[in-house]
Write a structure and sequence with these properties.
The protein is of the alpha+beta class. It contains six helices and 17 strands. Strands 3-4-7-9-8-15-16-14-13-12 form a ten-stranded antiparallel β-sheet, with helices on both faces. It has a three-stranded mixed β-sheet with strand order 1-2-17. The chain has a two-stranded antiparallel sheet with strand order 5-6. The protein binds zinc ion (ZN) (3 copies). One zinc ion (ZN) binds near residues 204 and 205. One zinc ion binds next to helix 3.
C-alpha cells in the first residue's frame, strides 16, 4: 500500500460521467455514526421443500417463460412476476393534474431463477453457469426489445440479501422493460455523448485507459510534500483478455465495482457467448473478493447498456455497456437523502487494495 492510502481523506469526488452522482469521501471516524447493515446468518441449504423456486416445485411459480438448458433438467428458469411493478396492458395513457404528472406504468417485469440450488452465492457458481445466466439475460433482453418497439429500456438487476432488498431467499434476478429510459442511464448516455462530441472519444474507454496506465505524483505547491500518488492499476480489481473490473475513483458505495469490456461496445446485446465466458471469470473472481472482504456480500448489480429507440441510435460510439456491482454495507442517512451526496468512509484506493489482497 502506498503511503497516501493511510492518510485521512476528506474530499468531495465528482463522478466524471454523471457529476450529480458524487461522493463525499471522509475516512475520519467522525463520519461513522451510521449503523452498518447487520450480517445475516448464512443459509447453506441446496434445496428447500417449501420454496417455489426450488427444483421440483415448478407448479408453485407463475407461468414459465423459458428455461436453460432447453433440454433436460433446468438450471436457470425464467417466470412471470407474481407481483409485477409494471402492467403489460396499455390502458388510458398518462394522467396529469395541476403540476402533477404521471406516466402510465406500462412494461414487463420478470423473474429469473439464477440457479436450481436454493442458496448458492454467485462466486460459488461455475464459470460456465454464470456465462449461461448472462447469456439468458441477453437472450431475454433481445426478445423483449423485438416484441414491442415502445420498450426503450430493459433493465436486468439482481438484489442479493435482505440489505439489498432481496425479498425471496432463493437466488434470483429480475428484468424490467419500460417505455422510458431510467434517469441514471439517461444521464450516463447524455453526458458521455457530450464528452464524445467535445473530445471525440468514449469517456468509458478513456477511464479504462486511465485505470490501466495512468501514473502521477502530485506535490503540494508550498511544502513540496506529496499530496497524492496514483499508481498504475491502483483502481483495477480484476482483468482478463476482454474485461476489466474497476473500483471507481468516485464510488458512491464503499465497495462498488464496475466491470466493463476492454474493447468499446455500447450494447450488451452484442456480447457474444465467448465474450460472456470470459466475463463470467472476471465476475466470479470479483464476487469472491467482495464476499471474502465483506464476510458475506449483500449487493445489487445491474447492467447498463445502450437504450433503444431513435433518440439513442447515435450513441453507439459514445456509450459503453457495463455491470455495476453495489454491495450494501451501510444504510443511507438524512445527510445522503438530503444532499444527494453519498458518504464513503473508506477511500476507494484502500478498498481496491483490500479487494486485490484477497487470495483466491
Ligand atoms: Zn429455493
Ligand atoms: Zn468505450
Ligand atoms: Zn452505469
Amino acid at each position: 500500500m502506498s503511503e497516501s492510502n493511510t492518510k485521512i481523506v476528506r474530499e468531495i469526488r465528482i463522478n466524471p460521467i454523471v457529476p450529480t452522482e458524487s461522493v463525499l469521501v471522509a475516512t475520519a471516524r467522525g463520519m461513522r455514526p451510521r449503523k452498518a447493515e447487520e450480517r445475516v446468518a448464512r443459509d447453506d441449504r441446496l434445496h428447500v421443500e417449501t420454496c417455489p423456486f426450488c427444483r421440483g416445485n415448478e407448479d408453485k411459480t407463475p407461468p414459465v417463460i423459458a428455461h436453460w438448458p432447453a433440454e433436460g433438467d433446468w438450471e436457470i428458469r425464467m417466470v412471470e412476476n407474481l407481483y409485477p411493478v409494471l402492467g403489460s396492458n396499455p390502458g388510458d395513457g398518462n394522467v396529469n393534474f395541476g403540476l402533477q404528472q404521471a406516466i402510465e406504468g406500462y412494461g414487463r417485469h420478470e423473474v429469473i431463477i439464477d440457479h436450481h440450488h436454493h442458496s448458492v452465492r454467485l462466486h460459488e457458481m461455475s464459470e460456465q453457469h454464470i456465462a449461461m445466466l448472462f447469456g439468458a439475460y441477453r437472450e431475454r433482453m433481445e426478445q423483449l426489445y423485438a416484441s414491442d418497439n415502445r420498450l426503450k429500456y430493459v433493465l436486468v438487476f439482481k438484489n442479493y440479501g435482505p440489505a439489498a432488498g432481496g425479498s425471496i431467499p432463493h437466488t434470483h434476478s429480475q428484468i424490467i422493460a419500460t417505455p422510458v429510459v431510467p434517469q441514471n442511464v439517461h444521464d450516463e448516455v447524455e453526458n458521455s455523448r457530450r464528452h464524445h462530441q467535445k473530445y471525440g472519444q468514449c469517456i468509458f474507454c478513456a477511464l479504462i485507459d486511465e485505470a490501466l496506465s495512468y501514473e502521477a505524483t502530485i506535490y503540494d505547491r508550498k511544502s513540496g510534500e506529496i499530496k497524492r500518488k496514483i499508481d498504475v492499476g491502483q483502481y483495477v480489481i480484476e482483468r482478463s483478455e476482454h474485461f476489466v473490473a474497476i473500483k471507481p475513483f468516485a464510488s458512491r458505495y464503499e465497495w462498488e465495482v464496475h466491470i466493463l469490456p476492454l474493447e468499446h461496445a455500447p450494447d450488451y446485446l452484442q456480447a457474444a457467448p465467448e465474450l460472456l465466458t470470459d466475463f463470467a471469470g472476471v465476475l466470479k473472481r470479483t464476487m469472491a473478493r467482495l464476499d471474502a472482504v465483506l464476510e458475506g456480500a449483500q449487493y445489487n448489480y445491474f447492467i447498463h447498456s445502450q437504450p433503444h429507440g431513435e433518440a439513442f441510435a447515435d450513441c453507439g460510439k459514445s456509450y459503453h455497456w457495463h455491470l455495476e456491482i453495489c454491495p450494501r454495507t451501510t444504510i443511507p442517512t438524512g445527510f445522503e437523502l438530503g444532499s444527494g451526496l453519498f458518504v464513503s468512509t473508506i477511500s476507494p484506493e484502500d478498498a481496491a487494495a483490500k479487494l486485490r489482497e484477497v487470495v483466491l
